[in-house]
Give the backbone structure.
Amino acid sequence: MRRINDPVILRDCLSRLASGPLTPAQARLLLASRGIRAQHKAVEAALQDFGRVSLPVPKQSKQHKPRLKSLDDLPLTPREREIMERLRRERERL
C-alpha cells in the first residue's frame, strides 16, 4: 500500500473514484480499496478542498447513568452499606 497525505493528490484520486458526497471514513475505505493509505486529517482536507463538505457525523448521545438500586434492596452488611454510601456520594460530586 502507498501512503499519500497530500490533500491535493487525494482530492484528485477521490474525484476519479467517487461521484457523490463521502464521509472521511468512506473516502478512506475507497482509497484503501485502491491500495492507498491516508491520514484522517488529510482525507478531511481533501474532501473540503474538493468542495464536498464531509457528511455530518451523528452526535453521540450523552451516556446515560445506570440506575442504581436502593441500598435497602441489596443484601449488604453494615460495613458494606457504609462503603457503598460513601462511594455514591463521591460519584455524585463528579
In short: The mean pLDDT is 80. The two ends are 46 Å apart (CA to CA). The chain has two domains: 2-49, 67-94.
